[in-house]
Design goal:
418 residues; mainly alpha; 4 domains; extended
Length: 418
């Protein structure tokens, strides 16, 4: 028997039931005899809550008899009417998420005026910088409070679904699958212990009134990190530790992020990953507030040039050319269409050559002072027609039609005088 359709159907029904309950809660007013004042999410569990009685068999069913501002009562009422545990968790999570959504949106809105400053300082892409920012600390505190509330109502194991835990475990095992079996098992134990310690640390923040980390809290977190790093060094050899850090680095998945056209070998990946990591790290110096815009731009150009030269030296001329194409938007637009029709990469190269030639000719015509506007338009129109005919022979009429719709806007631009 195929179980996935059954599981999928069950999850879909559960999601529909959860959505129906949430919508009914928004539409159904509370009973007039028992008004409930709005309360922040952190105070949703009251010490002496009113008891809501589940509907008796045979009586009309109303959701407001199940819902309660106290999430533990709400949970118990759902279980009392026979709600599957998965559905109970989905409903409670939905209510909690709804309460926290507005607070999170307010935090995000508060730093929009500083967005580009943070982009320049790379705070939005360097995860290790997040706890240092005021908005990052606020989001971390809010997340800790939400996690604590979920754990209080549904239990600690509800912080992750079984599928999520299995996926996380599988990802961790894959990253250390190259280690000897005994070290692999001990490494998994270390990682699990460290994750639990971080979860406990975050939960301790969420149990407070404001949840903001103090200097003592940050010192405690740093000690956890140092203890974990020391345990890694004791377990692994220097070579194994360097390999692990390489695989876990922020740029380790750079090859997977390339749109297509370049599949590095293992040796190429090992050569380029440290280069990309060094390039990312060196850009942190650009956040120096003493730098002028001109100095920052000059340093960025120098870093980019040095990185490109290092990549070219590591790959060699032929492979570097393929690497550049994989990062070229024009190439990717054509590559995506040809892949859809299972055409070889040689077709992409020929098509890209036609595009570059046509655009160069069009630029020469526009720059010519010897042509009248009418002659200029006629010449550009002829270049466009000839280019489309050539591409039609290379790609085929059907593929060219698709390409013109998804990435071939430059063909229309050939006939434009400016």
């Amino acid at each position: 028997m195929k179980t996935w359709p059954v599981i999928g159907g069950s999850l879909l029904l559960n999601a529909i039931l959860a959505a129906a309950i949430i919508l009914s809660l928004r539409k159904t007013p509370p009973p007039a005899s028992a008004p409930v004042a709005a309360a922040p999410a952190s105070s949703m569990i009251s010490p002496s809550p009113p008891v809501t009685t589940p509907p008796s068999p045979g009586l009309p069913f109303q959701w407001n008899q199940i819902a309660s501002p106290d999430l533990k009562i709400y949970r118990d009422n759902l279980r009392a009417i026979g709600c599957p545990e998965l559905t109970v968790r989905e409903i409670i999570r939905a209510v909690i998420n709804e309460n926290f959504r507005t607070r999170r949106r307010d935090i995000l809105a508060s730093f929009q005026d500083h967005y580009w400053d943070m982009v320049l300082r790379r705070e939005l892409v360097r995860r290790q910088w997040l706890p240092r920012t005021e908005w990052g600390q606020a989001l971390t505190s809010l997340a800790a409070e939400r996690h604590q509330l979920i754990a209080d109502v549904l239990g600690p194991d509800a912080l992750a679904t079984e599928a999520g835990r299995q996926a996380q475990q599988a990802d961790g095992e894959q990253k250390i699958s190259w280690l000897p079996p005994d070290k692999r098992a001990r490494m998994l134990e270390l990682q699990e212990k460290y994750r639990q310690q971080l979860a406990d640390w975050a939960a301790s923040l969420g149990s407070r009134a404001n949840g903001a980390p103090t200097p003592e809290d940050e010192a405690a977190r740093q000690k956890l990190q140092r203890d974990f790093d020391d345990a890694e060094k004791q377990l692994l050899t220097p070579q194994e530790l360097a390999e692990l850090h390489l695989r876990e680095s922020d740029v380790a998945n750079w090859a997977a992020s390339l749109p297509g056209g370049f599949n590095p070998t293992e040796d190429e990946w090992r050569s380029l990953t440290p280069l990309r990591s060094q390039f990312e790290a060196s850009q942190s110096a650009l956040a120096d507030p003493d730098l002028t815009d001109e100095q920052r731009a000059a340093q960025q150009d120098e870093l980019q040039s040095n990185f490109v030269n290092s990549v070219q030296e590591a790959l060699g001329p032929d492979r570097f050319a393929q690497y550049q194409l994989a990062n070229d938007d024009q190439y990717q637009a054509l590559h995506n269409v040809t892949q859809r029709y299972s055409l070889p990469d040689s077709v992409v190269a020929r098509g890209l050559n036609v595009q570059q030639t046509a655009q160069a000719l069009a630029d020469q015509v526009r720059a010519s002072s010897n042509l009248s506007p009418e002659d200029q338009r006629a010449a550009l129109s002829a270049i466009q027609q000839e280019t489309e005919q050539t591409l039609s022979q290379i790609l085929g009429v059907k593929v060219l039609s698709t390409y013109k719709e998804y990435g071939g806007d430059w063909l229309t631009g050939l006939s434009q005088t400016e």
